[in-house]
Structures are given as structure tokens and as C-alpha cells.
Amino acid sequence: MAVTDAPRIVTARLHHEDSHTLERFLATGGYDGLRKALAMTPEAVAAEVDAASLLGRGGAGFPAGRKWSMLRKAPVTYLVVNGDESEPATFKDHLLIEGDPHQIVEGTIIAAYAVQASQVFIYVRGEFALGLERMQQAVNDAYDAGAIGNDIFSSGFSVDVVVHPGAGAYICGDETGLLESLEGKRGFPRIKPPYFPAVMGLYGQPTVVNNVETMSNLPWIILHGGAAFAALGAGRSTGTRLFALSGHVRRPGAFEVEMVKTTFRDLIYAPLYGGGIRGGGELKAFIPGGASSPWFGPAELDLALGQDEVQAAGSMLGSGSVVVMDQSTCLVRVAWRITKFFARESCGQCTPCREGSGWLERILYRIEHGSGRAEDLEVLLDVCDNISPGLHWPPEQTTICPLGPSIPPSINSALTMGRDEFLVHIKEGGCPLG
Amino acid sequence: MAEAPVTAPEAAAPAADADRVHFTLDGRPATARRGELIISAAERAGVFVPRFCYHPRMSPVGVCRMCLVEVSGPRGATLQPACFVAVEEGAEVVTASAKVKKAQDGVLEFLLVNHPLDCPVCDKGGECPLQDQTLAYGPGESRFTEEKRHFEKPIPISALVLLDRERCIQCARCTRFAEEVAGEALIDFSGRGEMVEVATFPDRPFSSYFSGNTVQICPVGALTATPYRFRARPWDLDQVESTCTTCALGCRVAAQSSGNRLTRLLGIDADPVNQGWLCDKGRFVTESVNGGGEGPADAAHPGPARITEPLVRVGGELVTVSWAEALRVAATGLDQARAGGAAAVGVLGGAQLTNEGAYAWAKLAKGVIGTDSVDAQLGDGLPADLILSLPRATIDEACAARVVVLLTGDVREELPVLFLRLRQSALAGTTSLIELAPTSTSLTSYAAASLPLRPGDAPAVARALVGGDEQVAGPSHPEGPAWSAAALESARALLAGAGPAGQGVVVLVGRASVAEDAAVTAAAVRVLADALPAARFLPTLRRSNVQGALDMGLGPGVLPGRVSLSSGRAWFLEHWGSVPEARGRDAAAMLTSAARGASAGGVATRALIILGADPLADFPDRRLAEAALRAAELVIVVGGHHTEICEHADVVLPAAVAHERAGSTTNIEGRVSRLGHKLVAPGSAWPDWMIAQALAEALGEDLGFASADGVWEEIEQLGSVHRGVTPAVLESAGAHDGVVVPLQPDRARRVAPIDPIATPGVDSVERQGAPPRVGVTEADEWPEAPAAGAAPPPVLAAPAAADPPEVPLPDSYSLRLVSARRLYDGGTAVSGSPSLAPLVPAAVARANPYDLDRLGLVAGDQATVRGERASARLPVAPDRGVPRGVLVVDFNLPGGGLANVAAALIDAGALVNDVRLESL
Fold it and tell me: What is the pTM of this model?
């Protein structure tokens, strides 16, 4: 078991009851990173983050520093913080928003300073009632403390922050769906080109969209240096990452682990983390990076928790959620439940996702509930192929946004790992597990 | 074996051009304009990419995914929407690979997942892009065996449009149309996933003058129009390209009929005119042409029926007679009336006629009967000689002008599709609108400067606009001008910035209020024309073929070809044999003379010929019109509908209307376009030119006409502005969208991109002797020199400025009346169409909240509008767009127990009309 002694970067304060308050934050080094950043040039701050090689923690894993450097020069630029974490079994940002909102504020202002943003929006999932309350309180307190607003910490740098509640749709967590939602429109992801919000984002202006956890890393990076961050992990995957571990483990929860040097086996079995399969059961499969990632089986347990490592094995770390399934799990049911989620959350804008998700859900429901037919399996795969041609990884897509190609992986994985289960469902007219 | 040398394709490629990019389309070299979308570049290269959401007149959204093609890129060839991705230099586009085919199969199968396949009972069946493209590109069979989604079907989203959400494929064409084109975002998507539906906002129906366009561009049967629903199958419809005659814009339409009933009108994408769009009044006027609707509910709105047989009044009753008898009675009556001088005959109306009909009637009135008292306008337009003398702009030129001055009524109410065009220009930021209007209008929010006017103010504001720094004479209100100094300043800056002497300026000239004498607007127009010699003018006279009628001489003091009576006398004397000696009366003078007899001066008007018009509904002063019709010894009505005017008629002659006639019309810009002769007129109704010819014969003369084409040949030979516009030119491929007169041989024609989804089959109609229209620019094939022969008379020259009429100040208790035109009013097109008739609003007295506050009135209160000669109880409505001291009661709307309450209040003899608003 390799539980590294890497420092806790984003969860250091969470063991305190009052970790969300300004008092606790200030008492534990809060805003020191911001003060240090404000004494540097914006370019130096950006260089530090570049040196840290911080990959975006939202799902796509795009290097944060590079994202910033793509920002088109314009009189008005926006920084938008994505806190619309809505995928099933994903709850790491939730924890940070409720547990350490000031850390997000601090990181956000550091980022706003680095890119010289004119205005910041923090978009928090609408269902996070407590999170919204704490985020807003933190912003209010930060204004009072001089960490937001005019002439922040007498540095001459000024920026305003608005906390915006999400609109109740998973798709608003998509970068461009979020921007549309923020503009008061339906959360329809934008069609490309233009390819990046850095060129044309919120209200048509250059915009950086960063994830809550990405922001939370910034104070530490500024305080300890990009090199210290880059010393953690390996390869392109530096630093630590917060994983939301759930499913059939003894200790479900969010764990901050050092990247690459930790494996899925460590995360699932280490007593400090998952503590192994509940009831001493056997691992059947696990979802390595959220509902849209292809599944792994026991053979991939020793894979390192690194972006490129997981990618090379045919999946992704994605949203940082790991769902463990033991031998009691019906893979048909899992595929159905995940597909049902995507069918419900498809925005309905483009045809393959809108129609395909509902069709797939109906077929899976039928199979799980005893009305499956032998030809269904071919149809399932071919419908998936019409959404994501080739069904390879990383996926291609016939849709506008990544929600479409998020649908096939669970179905494809379930069929690959458990085709016999589907056949039994069809043959026996229902789920053997009841 | 020796091979022939092959030239490298690069060698053959044209030189690099900054505006063109080269790419490969299915392996063949092709070029595109820089920034052009793959879908249109491919189409021009002869490769049709299937599509649903893409529409050439709206911004692409790329949502249906039907147009996915393979495009090479940094990560190899990927599927990209051809409607959203522009052609890049060197791109390789593949539209027919196995991968593309699979994507097309997939998308079509997806689209049919929740589509009900109720094609046998769907109006779209037979002309359905979903059917057609499924057949052409689809997998042939669906593997979907699940339950489809369900919605209540259909639900009304407006009075005219029904929505079947089950059939909807979420292409966003209708929602985009509403927002982008009409500017009324009253429909949008609601819900998500496969339950996404098009929805209206709660209690806010999709009430738009343009709602019918959404039905036309819907690629499935989700949107249907109540007047057409379940009335026909597309394969039973015959169609011909024609011109809408509802207003004077001249939108091109496909007129479709079945069993000699006009079943449906579809907008055709005539690039210089309507660009595919129609207003609902023009689209659904079909019912009026047919003499009423066909549904059971339509009986509740019995509109005017069609006149099918000639009638003469015998013993107080109109009885059906033969044409010969009716013409004999008419001729006898006319001979009696003109015994004391031909000026005793007045001809009123003519805007509903074709050019050929108008010319024949002008020749009959002026060349045979000998009267110049002829007026195609009903006192609600502007002086004919002024309109004909203005240097004219085309619609395209207006929409491309740097500055457009709006000295007109609400364009959306009067010429709806022109509103769509101007709105686009204003939104594009290339055209600045300066609005001079008595109330805020649909274009006010798009205007760069808005100068509100009170009745009588127009000449003063025109002088202020073009004048130097000298003080402008005070406008006609004690409070001073209604416009702000800042607005005037910015308008002047815009005008000055456009160019010297009005270069780059187009002035839209119309009649914003019929409660104000036309002389007021005319004086303002003269000021602008005088001060801005390089500016051009686009008249916004609204009624049907009014421009054609005036061009054909149906106005006092003018002769065919836009020439004045005096300058054209010799020419027409030579060709007609007779021309009136003196200038005749206009509509108001004719009616006044008929009503008052000799006391009004000159030879009294004793006989009135009413040409396809109803002065009782349309003349601003109902009392005068009634008195004139009662007093006239002879009233001959030539028309298509049994309106109230028939009660005063001694002879009624049934005329063909709309697409029942061959011939042509002329729109506001002077564009002559051909009507499609699609229907046989009901009963024994004749085309207007034939009625004129027959009446002339009954009077013992021969106009020399045997066909509409024959009339046009004479127009081309004699009309100064019509020379060179031969029947051959009008029939040429270059004249699909009409020909602007006078002919400008160097004018290349632009051909519009056609949306195959919105105009099913229209393409094939056009192909008769002509290549299909695809978006290219072609030089026309029109002759350069006009036909040989003696030089025709000069056309009317630009008017000189004249002293404006002196408008008296109102007293402190009065409000100055404004009466503007509304699209849905008491006219025949609306009242004769049961679907449109319920949409006519009730008259409301609109005033500035300040004036209502003074009287203690709040919105909805009933108040008395008291004029010199009548008063009426009307609900009041506060409207900040109305200047203080002004009361607006729109024209030809029912209210206070009257069918046209404004006409009861207006005295046509007054320069302006003052009324009082009383709370009791």
C-alpha cells in the first residue's frame, strides 16, 4: 500500500468544524497566498502556475496555465469558476464549496489577478443550498476583509465577484452551457467554432472557465511555489487530486491523494482511503472517472492515478469520481441507471444525444425488466456508435457537446465486461439479482 | 503504353484570390467565398448536403446534425456540420463516405424515434423534408420499437398557428425566425432531452404578423396554419409563381390552388423584395379571394362575398343582368353625366387593378370619357405628381443606405415585409434610421434618432433636419416641438455624416396619419427633396398596386409613364386621339364636388366609377364619402367583393382579383412583376382591362385591346419609364423577381439562395424555361436600348420646395388627432378572411399618460372622443410613444358602435383635426 506523505493541499482545513469561516481561514494561513501573489507581477503568478503544471480538475484535464495564456487580449475579460458539480457520485467540489469557500475565493482572486480579469463569476450548482449560502457568505466576508473589491489588500488590483446559483441542469456544468446559463439563457452548450471561451466566452468576451478544485490549488502553489507542486505526482499529472470514492467500499468519501504515485488499488483498498470492498466482497468493476468514463475491472487496479496513465488504458480520470462495484452488482442495471441520468440531462439541442439517450434508456430498461430481445445488444452498440462513431477512446462525436459521447462508455463497458449478464437477462426474462 | 501528359491540377487552379478559398469536395477541386459555409459552397458546386435546421436567411445553429460531412483537420478527418463550418483553404470535404452515410442514417433514424409517423393524416405529407430526406438518405427501416413520447396534439400557439409537439424535430427554425427575423421572441424551447418542446410564454400567444412563415419553414408537420390545415394534399395542388397584391411591397409568392380555389400562398425567396417571407395578411388572404373560409367556424365571420355577375339597380334593387345589359346601362348613364362636360365623371380607385387594367382604365377615362378626375388613391395617400416625381430608391438601396429617414406610418403595419428588411439593416449596423413619426412605431426601438411629431409639424422638422443653424419656425403646439433638441442634433449629425447633399440617404415617404391633410407631409417631402438633391425616395403607399396605377396615369394631372398631363398631352393626343384639357380632381375634391354639387365650383361630379375600392371604408372622411355617393347620379362599381359600396351602386361589374388575372403589378420601388394567372374568376367576372375595353365599346370607342399582353405592349411603347420593358423582358429568366422601371440595363440580377424546405416544388415551376435559382449573381439578358420610335415625353421632375400650409394652434382643451393604418383593419382582405377577421383590434384612444392624468383617466377607462362632427366612446390607453397634446385613434377599426370610428371623427377638408377627450 502506497499512501504517500504528500501534503494536503486542498483539504488541509476540512477537519475543522468551522473550516468555512473567515476566522478559521485567516487563522490557518488564509489569504497569505493572495497577498504574496499580489506582490508579484501577474505574469510571474501565471508563470508559477505554469511551472506547477496544474491540470484542470474539472474533467477535461486541460493545463490551467495554458488555458490562461490563450486568453485573447481585450478590454473586458471574465473569469468564471465552475462549481456546477452535478454528475452522479461526484462530490469533491461539493465538499470544497461547503468546507472551504474562502480557499476558492483566494484561488479565484489569484487567478483573476494573473489573467487581469475584469469580473469574476462563481457559478455554484443550484441544488447546493448550504454551499451557495457559504460561498456567498465567504464572498461577503472577503469583501469586508478587503480580499475582493476595490484595491484588494492595497495592491491596486480590483475585481468584483458574483456568486451565481446554477439552473438545475447537469449540462450547465459544461463550459459553454454554463456561460449560456450565466447569460440568462437556456443551458444549451455552444457549437464550435469558436473553439475556446478564451477567444469568445461570456457575453462574447474572452473568458477563462476554471473548476473549483483548480482554484483551490492556487493559494498553495503561490505560497510554496510551482516547483514544489510539480514535485508531487509524476509526468504531466502533478500535485494531489481529490477523488470522490463511492460504491461498495468500506469507507466511501472524498480523499486527497498524490497523483500517479497512488494507484486505484491504493484508493480503494488502503485503510486510510476506501478500506476495501464492503463485507469482504470481491471487486467486479469500477468506474474510474465519473459516469462518462469507460469502466475498469480488477486487472486495472494497479493503474496509477495519473491523467495520461488512465487515458492510455482507455479511460479517464474525468470528474474525479470513482465508483466501486462488487460482485453483487448488476451491470445491466448500472448501465441503465447511468444512461437514464444522461437521458434526463440531455439538453435536447442536437439530435443524436436527444433521441439516442432516450432510446438507449428504453432498451436498457426493457432488458433489465425482463423484456429484452437478442437483437437489442447489436442495436445498443450501433446506436452508441451513431452518437460516438467508432466507440473508441478518446471518443469521436456526432453531437455538439461532450454529453453525447458520455453516454456510450457505460453501455459499451457493461456489454464488454458482462455480455453474458445481458444474455441471461434476455433469456430468463429479467434480472437474476432481482 | 504511352500516357497522355496530365496537367497538374495546381497549374490549372486560378490565381490566389483574397476573397476565394480552394478546397476539395469529394475529391474534386472546388472554390468557395472566404468564410462561406461548407453547405452552401457544396450546393453551388452541385453537391446537395441534406439538412433540416439550416436556412440560408437565418444564422446557422448546427443542431439537427443532418449535414454532417467529413472535414480534414489537425486531428484527421472528423464529422463536422456543413452548415456551421466555413470552408478553409485546402480543406478536404467528403460528403459521401461510408462514415458520412452512417451518420446520416443514424440522424434520420434518431429523428424518427419520437416522430409519430402519422404521415397519412399530416398536412406535410407529400412535401415533407423529413419524408423526402429519409427516403433519399435514410436507412430505410427503423430499429426503434419502443413507446414514443406523447404530447397533447395539436395546441394553438396563436390564432393562426397550431403546434403538434409530437412531430417537432427541434430544428429551431421557427424560434430563430421569431427572434432573428421578426424580432418577436415569443416562442422558445422549453423542457429538456427528448421532451424539449417549442412553447409560448404563459398567456402570451405567438401573436406576430409573421407567424405564418414559421409554418412554411417548418421541415415537418409540427406547425400548421388553421386556414390550410386538412384542406388539401400537396400533390393535388397546382402552383404558379405570382405576386402578392395585398400591400404594395410586391412579395413574390407561389400561388397554389386546387379545384379552382386558392388553397395556399407560399413566400418565394425574391432577393430584392421579400427574401422568402410573407406577412400573415398576405399569406392568408386566400380566404378572401375564395369569398370566405371553408371551415364550420368560419360561418361566424361572414365576410364580403364575391361579386360573380353584373348587376344593375332596378326599382331600388340590384338585379342580375347580362354583361351587355350592364354595360349598356353604364354607358347610357355615363353619356348623360358627361353631357355637360366630361369633368362630371370621376373615377375613384384602381390600386387593386393590374398595370394592364389600370392602363386600360386610364385610357378609357382620360382618352375616351375625357375626364382627368381620376384618383387611384382614396384621400389616404400623397399627391400623385409628387410621388411620381421623386428620385426613387429600390428596397435594396434603402436597406443599404447609410441613413434612412422614415417619414411614414408604421412600416410593420403598412408594408410588413419591408419592416423585416429594414430591421435587418438597422440591426446589422450599416443603416441608421431617423424616424419622424407621430407615434412610436415598430421601428422606433431600432432607430438611431426618433423625432416625434405632432400633426402639422412635418415641414418644420424637415426644415430643422436639413437647415443650417437658423431658427426653425415654431411647430404647431404651444409647448414647442415634441422632439428633443438632442434627437434633432444626432439626426442632423447622421444626415451630415451620410454624404453631401443627401448622398447615401433614402427617405421613406408615406402618410403617417389620415387625420392630417396630405399637404403637410407633401410639404415636408418637398423640403427634403429640395435640400437633399442626392437623396432618393421610396414611397410607402400601402395599397396593392397603387404605384402601378399611378404609373399608368390613374391620378389627376398625370398620364401613363410618370409624365404630367401638360408635358404628355401631345404624345398621348397623338396616340390616344384625346386627352383631357384641364387637370382634374383628386379623390377628396371629387367626393366634395359630388356631395355639394355646383357649389363646390366647376363642373360638378355627377357620376362616380369606383374601381375595386370602397371609399366608405377607406376614405378618411366617412360623412363626405356617404354624402357624395348618395348625391351622385350614377355610381358604377367595378370590383371583386360585395362591400358596403354596392348599396350605393347603380351598376355593379364583377372583376377578377389577385391571381385570377394575367398581367403585372408594380411595387413601391417601381418593380414590375408578373402575376400568375392561376384561377378562373368566379361567375362571369372579367379582368379589369377587359371591362374597360367593353365599356369603351359600349361608349362607341375601341381601346384596341384584346389581351393583357396587348395592353402591356402599348404601355411599353407609350410609357416613358416603361420603354424597353417588353413582354419578352418580363418573361425572361432575369425578370423572375420583376424588373424595376425605368429599365437600367447595367443592373445585374442577384439570385436568392432557395431554401428547398420552405418552397417545395417552387423550383420546378421556375425551371420551365429557366435554370433553377441558386445563389449566384448573373448578368441580365435585357436589351440595352429602348425600342426605336419618337421620343416619349420627359418624366416628372423632382418637386421644388413650396411654402408649407399654415397649421393653426390647437386650443388648450383639444388634442390633435392622429389616425394611423393598422395591418388588420376593416378592409376586404381581412374581413373577407374568416381566419383574419377576429384579429382586428378594437379602436382605442391612445394618448400620452400626461394628458390622461390631467383628465383623471387610467388605462381601460371609457372616455368620449368629441370631434367637430361626431363623438364616440372609446377605451383609453396611455402610451408614452404618443406626444403630449396628441390623441391616436387608428383608422378603419371598429369602436363606439361604428365600423370605422376614426372616419366618423375626421373632416377631410381640415388641415388637421382637433378633438377633445372627455372622461364622462
Answer: 0.94
